[in-house]
Write a structure and sequence with these properties.
The complex is a heterodimer of chains A (438) and B (994). With 438 residues, chain A is mainly α. Chain A has helices spanning 6-15, 22-48, 63-87, 94-118, 144-177, 180-189, 197-230, 242-268, 277-308, 311-322, 326-338, 346-349, 352-379, 394-417, 423-431. Chain A contains 15 helices and no strands. In chain A, helix 8 (242-268) packs antiparallel against helix 9 (277-308), helix 9 crosses helix 10 (311-322) and helix 10 (311-322) packs across helix 11. A 7-stranded mixed sheet of chain B has the order 5-4-16-15-14-6-7, with helices on both faces. In chain B, helix 9 (263-276) packs across helix 10. The chains are: A mainly alpha (438), B alpha/beta (994). At the A-B interface, helix 5 and helix 10 of A face strand 28, helix 28 and strand 32 of B.
């Protein structure tokens, strides 16, 4: 960090906006194909019916809900890094804040698609809006799904505004260094930023304000999503630990996704001097914390199930660990709680390869956590005659691949056309003379 | 914008509007008749009384006709046989008329292809062949028919006489030959008396499946529950002795798993015991002596050894039979081995010993199915077709090519150049496929006719709707064929009226009309007059003669000659009967009551048998008998004796329409064409030559998740002694919030406790609808499920969807085994509980499940956007989602009930307590300016339940039956501890120790 100058920071970031290679466009094309495949699967589902998925009686919710929670979860950690750590003046977050916030916005967009995909009659989704109608019908605000609508739309709005506000000075920097069509676009995007004193003041105040607004959302949005389950009567869902459990899990998976994104980004764009190893190490240390919280939550669930002496609660937890879906359960436990413990070893958390591999495992584990929660609880709930199993189908997998493609498509397009590291904040840090990462 | 661009955009825009009007989905509008016929009130049904012809029992039905089409069939409340109730097959009658595979015009076989010809052409063709046959000699025109009423039989005889031939032979695959012969030998009557089961206090069945197919299932269901369902005194006890428990045995107090064919040993043991105790009063001394001699060797130990049962079981049976005041022993069912006749004969003797007056037998009102020919006669009939040089064979609605074992030579007899075969079937079944000409005739719901399931009454049929095709009635056709214009009556309807007149049943025209309206003429039931005298010669059959009466030889000889080896049994099915119901999709879709498998035919085996074969549950096994081999999915169950393999009859047709062709397996193909010498009847069991696992496994289309309750408060039972001791279950536990202690909470303001309930009670307006389900009366027959399908336009999903877990059943009958006591089974009808505190209501974002002001949980179909949170949150899992757009192939859509929405894909549905019926009752009550009376609203399931296990009514009416039942000591709510406050109250099943 010490030999960085304003110019170097600017140059490193602006260099990423150079014309792209063929490999890049090939990747974009591949992701576009993935997206279109997912879209095709969804259109097929709309015409034929939800039955093309694997959902049935009793498991009426499948990968669409799993992916929804997964993507919303990932979004939270971006806000944690860019908003909460900003309030805490944790300087090490500056190099990754921009990319993290971008991840948040795109993850929320991806997540927001899933409630539509999941609906039996997606073309009637507007019933969920309180629009004036002849029968004076209101949507049911008692329903956790309505809470979701409010929460997710709030989160998307606030995150987008926060993200955009932070982008403004950097957009101006790009505008000043570009020509032709790019200059025209960035002129519009930077909204006439000139760098005047008042503008900077508004910018910092605005940014702080949004950070403060976004902070409670980190806790509340995923709590609301967790109440989709906790407010249900289903055994294994109906527990008060869900809100903190889900929030911790969300941050856990989001931090892992940050690592998954940052490590290749850093390598490809030569960001090593800006996104230093210390930054990544700090992310890893946070992952240890969230991993321990998640592990504690698993333990608490099992303890409470035993302590309650409620035979149905005990039965469902036993089945989770030993029943038809035990592979998913053990993947969840090992990947989310045991593997992150490796990060206690300094050598491992300072090794790029290890960090990348562990982050992938954590994401797999967190996906399976949602699988275990959503699928196993409903597969065996109160009435034994109604028990049944669920397996996802090709169409569901296609839509899932489509969602991943969409996320990476947006992200990959972003990093090559917009500044993926906040030049402004890094230059601020330089100015304040903060030279350490933690 | 340039003008050119604007025009381009405008045209694309308008094209898209035009194109969007053309959807790929057809119009789904129900047009009501603008100009209705004079006697039709659109929106209001007309009911026509008729008789069900789905089996020989002859229950009375009333058919609901809406705007000219029959949409539902219910039992005729005036009919003495079924008293307003109908079984699962009766409910599926409508799927016969509207079956998409119904043959609409005659088909002539030319070069192995079927060519449609006109009705007049076909008629002339048959006339021509008939004349030829008549002219070429006597008995050259033969007919084989299903069992028909007296009038139709008389007409057939009359017409065939004109053609120089003798009368038709009536073929029923289940013709009770052993029972008839046993009755002839013991009582001198070659017939089938009916049983006054409701007056018995100890019932013993040797396998007779009287709740499924035996003689008259709906009648025996209500009779059985009249003697067995709990009353304040000790209830009647029921023992079922058979190798396969079956649905009937699942309702027994004790099922004794007996080796197939050895039931007679148990009866002989009982004969010995009862004679020793001095019973047999009123019987001739010679008879008693022969019986004593014959039963000499049947000590408890010997009996138990022969029948391969536990001696303790026999002792319990003996004690109960001796203790009983009015015991009744029923014979064997269809699925038994060669010992069936001996068992039936011994049972008749035992009945005589226990009550020489046979007061529980009704010899005056015998079952009509006694008029069907013995199997030996049927075989002889087919053999005679070639030897007698028959020129014309008329087949009236029978399927011998399917129902007879392959070695019987039916196909060969039908394959003849000399003989012209005409089938009057409406469906292409295995026999009809072999015919030369198919001439479809009216189905029973389109006919004037008369069929009486028992003598001593007349049960009429009338057309309940207009004709679907130009098909005539078979009687009219026969008159045309035999007489052309030179006939004694103008049509078949007149013939029926004349016949009834000549029998003295009806004298004037208005009596005919009254009979039609009532469904028949039902004289008062007077005590049976005919008293048979025991045929003393019968006892000669008890002397050990030769190998055919093996059961009466010394015990050791029998065991040595016939060691226990794997046996295969084909049993009749409550859904398909003998196979005739297989093309009705509801019957395939609603799973078998015991296995809960739909559409498939698994083979049932005991865990020990499966282990010996090296197969597991769900694995495909090859079963080989002397006749052939078959591959079937093995189903592991304790409801069969080890060493016995059971398969249900009725499926495995080669031809029978899209719902039955190549669906399932026909177990009759494994049976030998053996005819029992003594009785002339077939055997439905055979030795298994080899049985091995193929190594494959196939998914079973079963609708049950787990077979046991896992200690949850779902289907509860209560021991009988706790009932009579005035033991109050409800106050036995301290009220608590646990599963065991949660109090009974009515879905009324009385059930709310501010200390426990967060929200205040609902404000119901005059009515709070609720249902009471008496588990002690439920026999698990699933007639309620079929009625629900018929009433509520429920989609048929077929096998693959059921494998995926997507059946659409609103009302299902769950069945739970007791893990400690494998023979104890509880049937548990589960439908939407219409909870007062419904978990589904708060979680829907758009208020699609909505609590009505009368307590119903209404599912508003057009509001539902399909988030499916409601079904996730329903603890009872009664909600059904429309995963696809279900099909109603033309003309099945004509059966749809216009009062009930047909749901599109993406929408959730569930039981609505038949809200359309509640609305109708409201309308009537409003017109008459009064409240709805108790018993006025009858949902479809409640209406048809043969045993009256379901009661529906208004909980806010303190005098309603439902409200009274909530005070029963047996009342409880399923999973009540979840504080859902369900409006379905269950009454515990009462269990007796035997």
């Amino acid at each position: 960090m010490s030999d960085l100058t304003y110019a170097k920071i600017d140059q490193t970031v602006l260099d990423t906006l150079r014309p792209a290679t063929q490999v890049y466009w090939f990747t974009v094309a591949l992701l576009a194909v993935g997206m279109l495949g997912g879209l095709a699967c969804w259109i097929y589902q709309i015409f034929i019916g939800i039955g093309v998925g694997g959902q049935n009686n009793p498991v009426a919710w499948g990968t669409y809900l799993i992916n929804f929670v997964f993507w919303v979860g990932i979004a939270h950690s971006g806000t944690l890094i860019s908003a909460i750590l900003h309030l805490f003046h944790a300087g090490w977050r500056n190099p990754i804040a921009r990319a993290a916030e971008t991840m948040t916005v795109f993850a929320v967009c991806t997540a927001g698609l899933f409630p539509f995909v999941h609906l039996g009659r997606a073309w009637m989704v507007y019933y969920m809006l309180p629009y004036p109608n002849q029968r004076t019908l209101w949507p049911n605000f008692q329903s956790p799904l309505m809470f979701d609508v409010v929460a997710i739309s709030t989160y998307l709005t606030v995150s987008s505004l926060f993200w955009y506000t932070g982008l403004l000075p950097d957009l101006a920097t790009v505008r000043d260094r570009s020509t032709g069509l790019r200059k025209k676009i960035f002129t519009i995007l930077s909204m006439g930023w000139t760098g005047k004193m008042e503008q900077w003041r508004h910018y910092t105040r605005g940014y702080l304000f949004f950070a403060a607004l976004a902070t409670p959302l980190v806790i509340s949005v995923h709590s609301v999503v967790s109440w989709d389950f906790a407010l249900g009567v289903v055994p294994g869902w109906h527990t008060t630990i869900f809100a903190p459990y889900f929030v911790a899990g969300a941050i856990h998976s989001g931090l892992a996704m940050v690592l998954t994104l940052m490590i290749p980004l850093r390598k490809i764009f030569s960001y090593e001097k800006i996104i230093t190893l210390e930054v990544l190490e700090n992310v890893a240390k946070t992952i240890i914390l969230t991993g321990l919280i998640v592990g504690f939550a698993y333990g608490t669930e099992f303890f409470i199930a035993w302590y309650s002496q409620n035979s149905i609660e005990i039965a469902i937890f036993k089945w989770r660990a030993l029943g038809h879906y035990k592979v998913g359960f053990w993947i969840m436990v090992v990947c989310n709680t045991i593997i992150p413990l490796l990060l206690f070893i300094k050598k491992i958390r300072r090794s790029i390869i290890w960090l990348f591999v562990i982050s992938i495992f954590i994401n797999i584990g967190m996906w399976f956590e949602r699988f275990v929660i959503i699928i196993t609880s409903v597969a065996r709930d109160f009435i034994p005659h109604a028990w049944g199993l669920y397996w996802p189908t090709v169409v569901e997998m296609g839509i899932m691949v489509g969602s991943f493609s969409l996320f990476f498509f947006l992200f990959v397009l972003f990093v090559k056309h917009m500044p993926s590291v906040s030049m402004t904040e890094n230059k601020e840090m330089l100015a304040e003379g903060e030279s350490h990462g933690a | 914008m340039k003008r050119r661009n604007f025009l381009k955009l405008a045209s694309i825009g308008s094209l898209s509007f035009a194109a969007s009007a053309c959807t790929s989905e057809p119009d789904k509008t129900i047009f009501s008749l603008v100009q209705a016929p004079a006697d039709m009130v659109t929106g209001s049904p007309t009911w026509y009384a008729s008789t069900c012809r789905e089996c020989p029992a002859g229950c009375g039905i009333i058919a609901k006709n809406r705007e000219g089409r029959v949409i539902k069939v219910e039992g005729n409340p005036l009919h003495p046989i079924n008293r307003g109730k109908l079984c699962i097959r009766g409910q599926a009658v409508v799927q016969g008329i509207y079956n998409p595979d119904r043959i609409k015009s005659p088909l002539l076989k030319k070069n192995d292809q079927w060519q449609p010809i006109s009705f007049s052409q076909a008629r002339s063709l048959i006339q021509e062949k008939a004349i030829q046959a008549a002219q070429s000699g006597s008995d050259k025109a033969r007919m084989i028919t299903e069992l028909v009423g007296d009038s139709q039989l008389a007409l057939f005889i009359h017409c065939l006489e004109k053609l120089n031939s003798k009368g038709p032979i009536a073929f029923e695959p289940l013709a009770y030959e052993t029972l008839k012969t046993a009755n002839r030998e013991a009582f001198g009557i070659d017939g089938l008396p009916s049983y006054l089961m409701d007056k018995a206090d100890c019932l013993v069945s040797l396998g007779a499946d009287f709740l499924e197919t035996w003689l008259s299932p709906v009648e025996y269901a209500w009779r059985f529950k009249a003697m067995h369902a709990v009353r304040t005194e000790a209830q009647g006890v029921f023992f079922h002795i058979s190798p396969y428990q079956s649905l009937t045995g699942a309702n027994a107090d004790r099922w004794i798993a007996c080796h197939p064919g050895r039931e007679a040993a148990i009866v002989m043991g009982l004969i010995k015991a009862t004679l020793e105790k001095g019973r047999g009063i009123g019987l001739p001394q010679s008879l008693i002596q022969s019986l004593r001699d014959a039963s000499e060797r049947y000590t408890t130990q010997a009996t138990a050894r022969m029948a391969d049962i536990d001696p303790k079981d026999f002792e319990s049976l003996k004690i109960r039979v001796l203790k009983a005041k009015t015991p009744l022993i029923l014979g064997t069912g269809a699925g038994t081995a060669s010992g069936a006749f001996q068992a039936d004969l011994a049972a008749n003797m035992l009945n005589l010993i226990l009550d020489s007056d046979l007061t529980l037998f009704d010899f005056d009102r015998r079952h009509r199915v006694e008029g069907s020919a013995r199997r030996s006669e049927v075989i002889e009939f087919f053999n005679s077709l070639s030897t007698d040089g028959v020129r014309l064979l008329l087949i009236n609605n029978v399927n011998p090519a399917y129902a007879l074992p392959p070695g019987s030579g039916i196909r060969k007899s039908l394959d003849s150049d000399r003989m012209f075969v005409v089938s009057f079937s409406n469906f292409m079944d295995d026999t009809t496929a072999l015919a030369d000409l198919i001439f479809p005739v009216c189905l029973p719901l389109e006919s004037w006719d008369e069929y009486s399931g028992k003598n001593g009454m007349v049960s009429t049929l009338q057309p309940a709707m207009g004709r679907f095709t130009q098909a005539p009635h078979v009687g009219d056709l026969m008159l045309d064929v035999a007489f052309k214009d030179d006939r004694s009556v103008p049509d078949y309807k007149t013939w029926v009226m004349t016949q009834l007149h000549s029998k003295g049943v009806m004298r004037e025209k208005n009596e005919w009309l009254k009979a039609l309206q009532a469904g028949g003429v039902f004289p008062d039931v007077s005590p049976s007059v005919t008293r048979p005298r025991p045929v003393t010669g019968a006892t000669s059959l008890f002397e050990p003669v030769d190998d055919t009466t093996g059961l009466f030889e010394p015990v050791d000889d029998t065991i040595e000659r016939d060691p226990a080896k794997p046996v295969f049994i084909a049993v009749p099915s409550i859904r398909f009967f003998d196979g005739r119901g297989a093309n009705r999709p509801w019957l395939g879709e609603i799973p078998d009551p015991l296995t809960k498998v739909a559409w498939q035919t698994p083979v049932l085996g005991h865990p020990e048998s499966l282990k010996a074969a090296g197969a597991g549950h769900g694995e495909v096994v090859t079963i080989q008998t002397q006749q052939g081999q078959v591959e079937a999915i093995a189903y592991e169950t304790r409801q069969v004796k080890p060493g016995v393999w059971v398969m249900g009859m009725g499926q495995g047709h080669i031809h029978f329409g899209r719902y039955a062709a190549n669906v399932g397996i026909n177990p009759l193909t494994l049976l030998p064409p053996k005819i029992d010498n003594m009785t002339g009847g077939p055997v439905f069991s055979t030795a298994v030559v080899a049985l091995s696992a193929t190594g494959d496994s196939k998914p079973l289309a079963h609708t049950d998740g787990s077979r046991i309750q896992h200690d949850r408060k779902i289907a509860l039972s209560i021991p009988l002694d706790q009932m009579s001791a005035n033991h109050d279950e409800k106050s036995a536990h301290e009220p608590s919030l646990t599963m065991e202690g949660f109090p009974f909470t009515l879905p009324l303001p009385e059930g709310y406790d501010p200390k426990r309930d967060f929200y205040p009670p609902h404000d119901h307006e005059n009515y709070r609808w609720a249902m009471a389900v008496d588990l002690d009366k439920c026999i698990g027959c699933a007639a309620c499920t079929a009625a629900c399908y018929a009433e509520n336009n429920i989609g048929i999903v077929e096998k693959d969807r059921i494998v995926e877990g997507r059946e659409m059943t609103w009302l299902r009958v769950e069945r739970y085994h007791d893990p400690e006591n494998p023979e104890k089974i509880t049937f548990f009808p589960m439908m939407c509980q219409h909870c007062d505190n419904a978990p589904c209501e708060p979680v829907c974002p758009v208020y699609a499940p909505h609590h009505s002001k009368e307590g119903l949980n209404n599912q508003i179909y057009n509001r539902c956007i399909g988030t499916r949170f409601c079904s996730q949150n329903c603890p009872y899992k009664v909600r059904r989602f429309n995963w696809f757009e279900w099909e109603w192939p033309d003309p099945m859509n004509l059966q749809l009930n216009p009062d009930v929405t047909v749901r599109s894909k993406g929408v959730m549905e569930k039981c609505s307590f038949c809200i359309q019926r509640i609305k109708v009752a409201h309308g009537v009550a409003k017109n008459e300016k009064r409240e709805i009376k108790d018993g006025e609203v009858v949902p479809a399931c409640v209406q048809t339940c043969p045993t009256g296990a379901l009661t529906f009514g208004n909980l806010m009416d303190v005098n309603s039956r439902v409200r009274m039942l909530t005070q029963d000591v047996r009342a409880y709510q399923a999973m009540g501890y979840l504080n859902t406050k369900p409006a379905v109250i269950y009454l515990k099943k009462v269990v007796q120790k035997t």
